[in-house]
Amino acid sequence: MPRVWRRIQGNARNCLLYEPLFLIPFNMYMTYASIYMLELGVSETQIGLITSIGMAMQIFTSLISGHLTDKMGRRRALLVYDLISWSVATLIWAVSQNFWFFLVAAVVNSFQRVPTTAWYCLLVEDTDPEDRSIVFTILMFIGVIGGLFAPLGGLFVSQFTLVPAMRIMYVIAFIGMTIMMIVRHFTTHETAIGLKKMEESSKVSLSDTITEYKDVMKLIVANKALMIIFGVYILFNFQMTLRNTYLSVYWVDALHINDSIISIFPAISSAAMILFLMVATPRLKERLANQYMIAGFLISAVSFVMLLTTAPENITATIISTVLMAIGGLLASPYLESSIQNAIDDHNRAKVFSILGVLILIFTFPAGILGGWTYTINAKFPLVFIVVAFLASVIMMILYGRRTSRTDLHSSISG
Asked: Is pLDDT of 414 > 50?
């Protein structure tokens, strides 16, 4: 890791350097977010409704994210909308009392799509394409380290009980995330593409940008290989939405695991990832990225099949499933992220990523409602959908591999 870290300089280094201030508190509270809502009287169906309304709002914020990122610049858009979508949202979550508080927080948090687009642009635009998989591997490593702090959430819950502990964790998240946003802003610089797009967009209205989106969309649709990898990315986000919303609830409700100890599973996941990063990742070859993604999706599917078939209170099987889930994610995610970023030309990056965000949200929008509705019928249904998403991704990656062997993906979207 120190050796590859030296290859990363400039904005990428500073975007990654301060990310733990976000990921550590995020991992502390994320495991308990859905259970916290249940504890405050929000039903499983209402949780799904909140998730879907938040995602519907994100369709709008994703649509305008490319325009705002180009017009405001990557750094300014990142700072302003990070403060709105995360700092303000964590404070609302900290004082939430019922369904309406969580709904307002979801609407505020929906503006995260603007800093997401800005952050990816800032992260990769001044980074060589061959180094981008390294950037995303380091990012996952940082996420792994953040996951090791998840048991702190369990300690808070066991010490203070669930609701007071969550309020404390959300305040900690507000402080850590806000510090990260401010420090990162003053240690990064606007990218060359960002400066150019700010100048070009100074007199461009949102309606003009929407017109440009139509042209960019035509380029995307014309590229079959790009459409396939976008489809894989959409499925990946679909299953992540279901996983983040219902996995911890499934552990507690269906497997009857005590809510004070479920935070050990993210820590176990992180430990497994660290071991895999140290032992296996240095031996992985970039040219086999597609095969690694397929293997990662298959391993992830197996991990959820294990959860579906394990008996209640079976901690051992849950731990094995968690380890497999971690390995599958580590094999698939960095290469998928790198493939997406390398498929997009820098000149069109903000707009294409904005369109991709809209497509993701349109297709994952039903996940919250579908998951909530089916969970009330059978708690296993959301996990079944996750397995299906992984298996469909395997099929699409096979098709993608065949097509990219005949097509230059990058050049056809250079616009």
From this structure: no
